[in-house]
Amino acid sequence: MKLLFPGTFDPFTKGHADLVERALALCDELVIAVGINGQKAPMYSVEERLNAISRHYRDNARVSVISYSGLTADAVRQTGATAILRGVRSGADFDMERTLADANLAVLGVETILLVATPALQHVSSSLCRELDHFGYDTDGLVIDTFRKKDSE
Questions:
Q1: CA distance 28 to 63
Q2: In whole angstroms, what is the distance from residue 92 CA to residue 36 CA?
Q3: What b-and-e string marks burial along 30-59, b requiring 16 or more CB atoms within 10 Å of the CB?
Q4: In this structure, are residues 83 and 111 in contact, taking their beta carbons and an 8 Å threshold?
Q5: CA 85, 43, 125 angle in degrees (round to 5)?
Q6: 84, burial (CB in 10 Å: exposed 0-12, middle 13-18, buried 19+)
Q7: Residue 42: which residues within 8 A CB-CB, separation 6 or more?
Q8: Which of 36, 61, 89, 101 could link 112 by a cystine bridge, Cβ 3.0 to 4.6 Å?
Q9: What is the pTM of this model?
Q10: Are the CB atoms for 66 and 79 separated by under 8 Å?
Q11: Helices and strands in the chain: count of H runs, count of E runs
């Protein structure tokens, strides 16, 4: 089974990495798909995100990293993924992800696998990391080692 893990990943957190590691026990291959959303002003460029995530997984042949724009459905088709991987941290996340999963199944016939966040990482989000970084706080304990602000400056 090949899973597609889509997201903006701005930045890629330890919560994201935990989902990848746990999902690898369920699949043969995992594609991390960095979404390009023209309506967002990311802290990191697409290239910085791709490079940092690729460096983190450079020794794992089962993980690949791509970028995509448009619908996740198109990335599913382009990669030949058999299912979409998504993480859930809260009940609100679950409600939103369930709606998206229902739509992807109805429109594409593509299943979504939802993994519940590890309790110790439930508070970690890219939004939190960006806000902490904006106010000068250290996010090293929240983001993967190859994805620190100082690495991209």
A1: 9
A2: 24
A3: bbbbbbeeeeeebbbebebbbbbbbebbee
A4: yes
A5: 40
A6: buried
A7: 8, 10, 49
A8: 101
A9: 0.90
A10: yes
A11: 6, 5
> Which amino acid, 47?
E
* DSSP assignment of 64-133: EEEEEES-HHHHHHHHT-SEEEEEE-SHHHHHHHHHHHHHHHHHH--EEEEEEPPGGGTT--HHHHHHHH
Measured CA to CA, the distance from residue 90 to residue 66 in angstroms comes to: 27
Q: What is the pLDDT of residues 12-59, one digit of tens each?
A: 999 999 999 999 999 999 999 999 987 778 889 999 999 999 999 999
Q: Tokens 């939004």 map to which residue?
A: 127
The fraction of the chain above a pLDDT of 70, given in percent, is: 96
Q: Which residues contact 96 (CB under 8 A, 6 or more apart)?
A: none
Residues 6 or more apart in contact with residue 30 via CB below 8 angstroms: 2, 3, 4, 5, 20, 23, 24, 62, 63, 64, 85
CB 53 within 8 A of CB 34: yes
Q: Taking each helix axis from N to C terminus, what angle separates 91-108 and 72-79, rounded to the nearest 10 degrees?
A: 60
User: What span, in angstroms and rounded, lies between the C-alpha atoms of 9 and 36?
Assistant: 10
